[in-house]
From TrEMBL:
Pfam families hit by this protein: Cas6
Record's protein name: CRISPR-associated protein Cas6
Length: 226
């Protein structure tokens, strides 16, 4: 954990250079490990997604638990999607029209049919606390080394976070190699820093859902006691 004192800032209008396109889908199940298969399916319609600056494919997320159900951990276990579940793709503004080509398609995601019905645009957030479920590690590193890597990457973007918190290691499998990742939460960012990080991302493999940040409830309550 990396922690410094807080600061306050007035809200600002969000630039629309990069947006999230959220698609309503009909899809009953997906494997827990679906990042590569989802990119391949989306990439058949949008072949530019892996190389386009500012673009990425968010992992399809379902609640970790609820109504007696616990989210499984094994890669081949199944996630059960609800009608509220969305497929979300982050794109630069000039690719919004291209992203509409997914509409009406039925994607094959590791043998699971995903029908894309409609879409809405979501502006990026100025929220001071943002979170990436996966950030690629450069090798297998402990928490301290990972935070040092992340901090160097953030400084290269002109972002100087006050608070960072990372999660346990997780692996994303691809035919070429297995990627070691950790989740990363940042808090107390300025509005400009928050939007910039969402626009730029952190690290590699954003087409596999890595380095893509989304708003998260603040972690002020986790501040160490004084």
């Amino acid at each position: 954990m990396y922690w410094q004192d807080s600061r306050q800032e007035e809200p600002r209008q969000v630039a629309d250079d990069v947006v999230d396109v959220a698609y309503a889908i009909r899809c009953k199940t997906l494997p827990v490990e679906h990042a590569y298969a989802l990119w391949r399916a989306v990439g058949e319609v949008m072949p530019w997604i892996a190389e386009e600056e500012g673009a990425g494919v968010h992992p399809v997320h379902v609640a970790d638990s609820g109504n007696g159900w616990m989210r499984p951990d094994r890669p081949d276990d199944l996630l059960y999607l609800s009608r509220r579940t969305r497929l979300v793709v982050r794109v630069p503004k000039h690719r919004i029209e291209d992203a509409q080509r997914l509409l009406g398609r039925t994607l094959d995601v590791a043998g699971h049919a995903m029908h894309v019905e409609s879409s809405t645009l979501r502006a990026l957030s100025t929220h001071p606390a943002i979170f990436a479920r996966y950030v690629v590690c450069d090798g297998t590193v402990d928490e301290k080394a990972f935070l040092a890597q992340a901090l160097a990457g953030l400084h290269a973007l002109g972002i100087r976070p006050k608070k960072m918190l990372c999660g346990i290691e997780k692996t994303i499998a691809t035919p070429e190699a297995s990627l070691t990742t950790r989740s990363l939460m940042l808090a107390d960012l300025s509005a400009e820093e928050s939007v910039r990080l969402q626009q730029k991302g952190l690290g590699r493999m954003r087409h596999l859902g890595c380095g893509l940040f989304i708003p998260h409830k603040d972690i002020q309550e986790l501040m160490p006691a004084r």
